[in-house]
Amino acid sequence: MRFRPVSLVKQIQTLCLNHYSSIKTYSCLKVHTHLDKIKNNSVIDNVKHSSILYFYSSDSKKHLLNLEKKAEELKDVFEHKKEQIKETELRIRQRGVQLVKEIKQQKEITGQKIRVKREHMLKDLKETKAKVKEKIEEVVEKEKVLTIPNILCVARITMSPYLGYVILQDNYNLALGLLVFAGVSDLLDGWIARTWKSQSTKMGSFLDPMADKVLIATLFICLTWQDLIPLSLTLLIVARDAALVVAGFVIRYKSLPPPRTLSRYFDVTHATAQLAPTFISKVNTAIQLLLVGTTLASPVFDYIHHPALQVLCGVTAASTVVSAISYLVRKDTYKILKKKL
């Protein structure tokens, strides 16, 4: 087959033209399509932009309204809380006032209870004191002290200083008369106490020997001052009598039931002990009275410093020592009184 180049070339040109035209047409269409798309996209963007702006503006208004609403709610809550705080403060203040009133009332009630309790305690103390006093009066024998023997003993005691004054004034006649009166009163009070039991008291057992001791001590001291009795004998007798007086006070203290007070200690109506002088002590008292009596009469009858007086001084000293020893040895020289309940 014979090849025809001219027709081939023409065919190729025709194909090329057709292809170019188709490409051109496609390109134009694509360009127009793209332009249309751009226009459509711009319109859509404008619409979207306007829609977004509108949506944003409406959403902001809603958000602001919500914020304002929440602010109002918060303000209301704050005001409510503020009112609650005020009410709480008021309740606390009222409660504080009430507590103060309750404390004052409780204090008054407590004070009243304390006063009542104190009154009860004072009343109980008074009743207890009265009962104790009754018990003590039951334990301690109470006796009548205004008796004739006791009065005579007190008279001898009060007369002793005056008798000493008379001796120092060298009035031996009056002094001898007073000594005789004292001796008679001593014998008389003992006889009355032994004869009438109602006149015998426990106090008399103290007063009678004490009156003798005061009288004898006064006479010995004054006669020694007048150089009628030796000083050594006077010191011996005064020391022995002072020891007996101190022993009497100690016995009184030991025999007094509690409570031991001064008022009860010196209450002579409460007899707590009874003295029982020894026989040698009674003999010694008689010898001492004989010595001071004869010595006091010596200036009157003019036998001062007689040998018999010297012998009598020796006998008096010996009996004084023996009587002191008898008080130390014997245990029945006093008796503590206890009344049976």
Task: Please provide a written account of the structure.
This protein has helices spanning 5-139, 148-168, 172-195, 202-225, 231-255, 262-265, 279-301, 307-329, and strands at residues 141-142, 270-271, 273-275, 334-336. By secondary structure, it is mainly alpha-helical. 16% of the residues are buried. The model is unreliable at 1-6 and 51-56 (pLDDT under 50).
Could you name the key traits of this structure?
mainly alpha; two-stranded antiparallel sheet; 4 strands; rod-shaped
Structural class by sheet pairing and helices: mainly alpha
Strand arrangement across the biggest beta sheet = 1-2
Helix content: over 70%
Measured by DSSP, the beta-strand proportion falls in under 5%
The coarse silhouette is rod-shaped
Number of strands: 4
Distance between the termini: 185 Å
Count of discrete alpha- or pi-helical segments spanning 4 or more residues: 8
Q: Report Rg.
A: 69 Å
Overall mean pLDDT score?
Answer: 77
SSE pattern, N- to C-terminal? HEHHHHHEEHHE
What's the quick description here?
The chain has 341 residues and is mainly α.
Helices and strands in order, then pairings?
Layout: H1 5-139, E1 141-142, H2 148-168, H3 172-195, H4 202-225, H5 231-255, H6 262-265, E2 270-271, E3 273-275, H7 279-301, H8 307-329, E4 334-336
Antiparallel strand pairs: 1-2, 3-4
